[in-house]
Amino acid sequence: MVIRMSYSRVVEQSDQAIRELTEAGEQILGYIYPHFPLEIAMAHGLLPSLVRTSPSAGGGYESSLQTFACSLTRNIFSQRASGHLTTFSGIVFSGNTCDSLQNVGEVWRKRFPDDKTFRLTYPAAIPSESSVTFLAEELRKFSVAIDSEFKMPFSEELFKDAVALISEIRESLQMLYAARVLSPKLLEYSTLSSLITGFLTAPTTSVLDNVLEIRSSTMEDLEMQVDRDLVSELQNAFLRKDLMDIGKFDESISIRLLLVGGMIETNALSEFLKSVPNFSEDMIILDLLSYGFKTAFTPSISLVGDPFENSARAILGSLGEPTQEGLSDRVRFLKEILSKLSINGLIICEQSFCDPDEFEAPSLARAAEDLQVPSVRLPIDPELSDRVRLEGRIQTFLETLM
User: Fold this and answer.
1) What span, in angstroms and rounded, lies between the C-alpha atoms of 57 and 46?
2) pTM of the full predicted structure?
3) Is residue 180 a contact partner of residue 270, using CB atoms and an 8 Å limit?
4) CB burial class (10 A; 0-12, 13-18, 19+) of residue 206?
5) Highest mean pLDDT pick, 14-28, 69-83, 131-145
6) Count of alpha carbons within 13 Å of 100, Cβ hemisphere only?
7) From CA 44, how far away is CA 151, in angstroms rounded?
8) Which residues form the domain of 96?
9) In the predicted model, what is the mean pLDDT of residues 311-337?
10) 16 within some domain
């Protein structure tokens, strides 16, 4: 059973979980960019965990950072500078995803030289065989660096165990996403968000047990309303990023919202939206957030062949970011979702000072406008520091849809 909590409580509980795992002898490898090779880290005996932002951190000015730093990286850096960041055995920064994540990693190494930091470079190109080859080689280098730093070599057995565990968690989350599209009242968005949070905190068997419990009860209730095959059909369509063969959905719910953009955790957004007058969680049909849908809908890794190449192929097969996927394909998929899922309202989340978000948002808004779907842009930061103004924008937006 998932207990509903405030986002501050979620962060506190996640930190406590990491502390308990550390005390139990686990070595925790923190990561920031969501398309992270979880299975590779676990093959070295490390437990991967998202480096979370904190709603109480002062993410504004920090003397070590220049204007290239987005609000997310400022928040995380400020936690480390003040000594409030969860203790990780090491932290992985990404390259070629955005200037902020790459440059803050460089500043971090200078400011905190005793921290174990790693860089994993992603291909800045639309997925192809050459980009798979490039990322596979980077994953190999990353594996060598982990072995060198921790003296923990890559284990084929641990890799297979990790693939099995993570695949089952993701497949269950995918089913829950598809089930919510079919019947949003069946599963609260905040409950799904809590499951995502557990997975990001640490992909463990206890997390799997929790996800399976919710999946079992949700699917049992859903089967009383619709054919279970519809869930699998929609789940597979999302994985293919092609909804053309999906029939148009029932429009009995007057407001059907899609959330897109922003490296914001689903729990944070869910808690914020619940505070908006006249808002109901069943209005949210789907999210395309970095820490939501994109976390769940990463293809399973094949165990036949080279583990690094297969890992690279799976990572690049997920719904990515602008640098990995290309804007035209993302806009096409967005339009299919807006049309096929009968979406009548688009909420575009823009992480403050995030270039990928800021550059992409106008194209997303135009895509919705082409289909006569109203949209609203929300400039957000990890602290949701401008809550009153944001609540006002959402409330006004909802009134235009009623």
Assistant:
1) 27
2) 0.91
3) no
4) exposed
5) 131-145
6) 21
7) 9
8) 7-155
9) 81
10) yes
Q: φ, ψ for residue 286 (rounded to 5)?
A: -165, 155
Determine, yes or no, domain membership for 29: yes
pLDDT per residue as tens digits for the range 106-127: 999 999 999 999 999 999 777 7
Q: Is residue 96 part of a domain?
A: yes
**Residue 94 is inside which H or E element, if any?**
strand 90-95
Cα dihedral sign, 293-35-353-18? positive
The single-letter DSSP state of residue 178 is H
- Per-residue DSSP letters for 343-384? --EEEEEEETT-HHHHHHHHHHHHHHHHTT--EEEEEE-TT-
Return d(Cα 293, Cα 349) in angstroms, integer. 14
Residue with tokens 């997303």: 364
Find the CATH number of the domain harbouring 112.
3.40.50.11890
Rounded-to-integer distance, Cα 140 and Cα 307, Å: 9
Percent of the chain with pLDDT over 90: 58
**Which range (102-116, 137-151, 241-255, 340-354) has the least confidence?**
241-255
Per-residue HEC secondary structure of 95-123 comes to ECCCHHHHHHHHHHHHHCCCCCEEEEECC
Domain count, the chain: 1
Residues 265-283: b if buried by 16+ CB within 10 A, e if exposed: bbbbbbbbbeebeebbbbb
Residue type, 293: F
DSSP class of residue 185 equals G
Q: Span 293-309, mean pLDDT?
A: 95
Residue 63 has pLDDT above 70, yes or no: no
pLDDT in tens, 334-378: 999 999 999 999 999 988 777 677 778 889 999 999 999 999 999
Residue 380 lies in a domain: no
206: three-class secondary structure by DSSP: helix
* Pairing assessment for the beta strands 46-50 and 284-288 based on DSSP bridges: unpaired
DSSP state, 283? Answer: G
- Token digits for 172? 């269950």
The count of other CB atoms within 10 Å of the CB of residue 1 is 7
Q: Which residues pair with residue 273 across a beta bridge? A: none
Cα separation, 36 vs 26, in Å, equals 19
Q: Which helix (H) or strand (E) holds 47?
A: strand 46-50
